[in-house]
Request: fold
Amino acid sequence: RATRGGEEVRGYAPSMGQIFLRRFQMVTQFRQALEDGQVSVHYQPKVSLPGKHVLGVEALVRWQHPEFGKVDPDEFVPAVEAAGLVGALTSFVLEKALDRVRRWLDEGLRISVAVNLSVRNLADADFPAKVADALERFGVPAELLTFELTESGVMADPQRALPILRELHSLGIVLAVDDFGTGYSSLAYLRQLPVDQVKIDKSFVLGMGTDLGDLAVVRSIVELGHSLGLTVVAEGVEEDVARDQLEAMGCDVAQGYLISRPLSEERLEAWLQARTAR
Ligand code: C2E
Ligand code: CA
Ligand code: CA
Ligand code: CA
Reply:
């Protein structure tokens, strides 16, 4: 075991070199990992308030790495983005997601799916055409697809992102601003974006039970969203009290561990069946 300043360094505190190496390996192995089935998509349900009707699911990517084990998307997505490989990631997730929706449609279920976009997708002028092609191939109506994008992703290069967003929107795809409240959050700017939904960042929703400031932020986002005619979604709903408060404020949709954690496709099927059987 290594010692530092006389104190024992326990467990796996990685050095900068190890972090760099791991990141480098992840980036170089990513494409192969997609082909080898190490990467999968989990789905987290979104329910209406107050009805608790399942409106849709959010697709969240998972990587089971042979050496590192489960790698968190917060770690590998930024690395994949920086390496210019996010186009492959988004296509992979989109195809899985549309295939899932297609099979639900075949069973008579209308459940929408939300896919997270990266800033790099919004710099690819061919992206809307690729998406239109995928929708057609799977025979999924555009309104059953939502794209979640962060404000910072749009703000990085609005000149480039805006025409792409408009094109996606004109296809009939639902657009949501993710992590709302954390970025620039310019209200004037929100009005100019072709968006349908705002997702209140989970940090405010998690804090609203104990922090009056967070509660005020949540309340004002609900009001602002509604005054702009947007659907308001809260993520990070972990407690009954939070759900009840959100419902009382008029928030439209809830997502979080209280309803369900992100689930593998198989477990999601079981979850959906258990709900409709009740
Ligand atoms: P996000 O888009 O903000 O996704 C929500 C994150 O919150 C997910 O983490 C989800 O598991 C977690 N979460 C959901 N409900 C709760 C709750 O009640 N409490 C708490 N504490 N957390 C909750 P996850 O799956 O680790 O994803 C992290 C981030 O990675 C996502 O944040 C998103 O920015 C990115 N990401 C995930 N999948 C993709 C993808 O396919 N493409 C891209 N570009 N980014 C992705
Ligand atoms: Ca998201
Ligand atoms: Ca979010
Ligand atoms: Ca996030």
